[in-house]
Amino acid sequence: MALVLQTSCSSDDPTAEIRTAPVLQPFEVGEITYARLTETVSVTVTAPEVVGTSVPVIYTLFAVSGENQEAIGTGSPALTQQIPLSAINEALLKLEVFEGPTNVGFFIQASVADLTRNSANVIVEVTPYIHVAGPVSPLNVNLPLFLVGNVLGDRDNSDFRFIFFRDNNNSPDIMATNFSAGNFKVALGMDDLGSDTYLTGSAAPGILAARGQGNDIAMTAGSQMVTIGLNSAGNRVYTIEPFDATGAPTYGAIRLIGAAVGGWGDGDQVDLTQSSYDPNIWYGTVEINPGELRFRADNNWDLAWSSAGFPFGRQATPGSGTNTNVPAPALYFVKFNSFTGHYVFLELESRVIDPSTWSVEIHGDLDGTGWHDHFAAFSSELTTITNPANNAGTFVWTIENIEILAGSEFGTRIAGSWFNGAAIEITGDTGNFSGDGNVSVENTQTYNVTFTIEFNGVSIVGRPVVNFAPVQ
Q1: Residue 233: which H helix or E strand, with range?
Q2: pTM for this one?
């Protein structure tokens, strides 16, 4: 594989230079099993020669397959890093590396200021962990699993409400709830619902059969947890174990709240419905836009759940946490377990993303009155469009004659998602702004402001550009 070399000059430090490429030392991964997902791999880098800046160099590991690459983690200044096998496995699946053993390229990217430079590829033999039932192929990796049977009410082989949860996108499928006595099978993906032809049953006690084969799996009445994954030998297995749900808190209401469903106020919330078979299970069919959200109980922020995972995720204990970011607009079936903190978003109908409808906000204290949203008067203008079918193009938001006081700090939000100083490019009066986190303002000045993004029909490409043009 070819060495990818990327360099650019920093406007803040034009003399900075990465004179030599970093060197990634050889390392081993081997077969990633479920039991090994909690392990780490030690990765060591030989530092490049960097001149003209005192800013620490950040080293980020990438995996490469064909023309595609995936970052693993967010990077670190450490020359030796402990990389979770779970993160490597997730990158492999995103690159559609589904079989093994196979040789995969890895490289280290060194970044400092606005400069980046990549190491040569190191070839590593890997076998990814695949956690789905049925035959493994690119068509069924990471598809959601559904329980079909008479153990959660009347048997309905088309009911997607009984989708399994996961801790994250790459972990085993689990369902912990109050079951009735009966039998069930498993559907691999939405396409296998609606008919018994493709349902998967038991090939032997604890072993799942191939898609469309196997016997009914017996369930006893009571609180049980069903787990489906792979064992260390590569067999697709399931377990049914007692699950203690005593002491589960009782909530009057569980709702979605956040920019993705209209806003962060109490009046913006979307109610979920409590299930009839388990008071801890809440669900709903909801129109959701790109942006962030959380689950919240009884209007209490101390009883809120979310995580970085999507469409699967979990926050075991309610409270503060990373907001869940919904990347694409769609009609979703949303399911949440208020006892375990698991959630899943199942896309039912896709929607076209129209950035011209997004809100763009400068959020901070620009006028000495405390942190709040500014620039609510931002207007949207589509200046170019390269693909009308998916709204790809350049979008510009503008506002004029805004005074920003010295000592102010702010971040930016697009459709409710945060972009801090390191995630945006400031142009215009660059000498008046600084900071990789919140952007700090040194001098009072009135500006005409433009906020520009490049959109590819699915997501923002690169960093948004915020131009502060002083009003003379």
Answers
A1: none
A2: 0.57
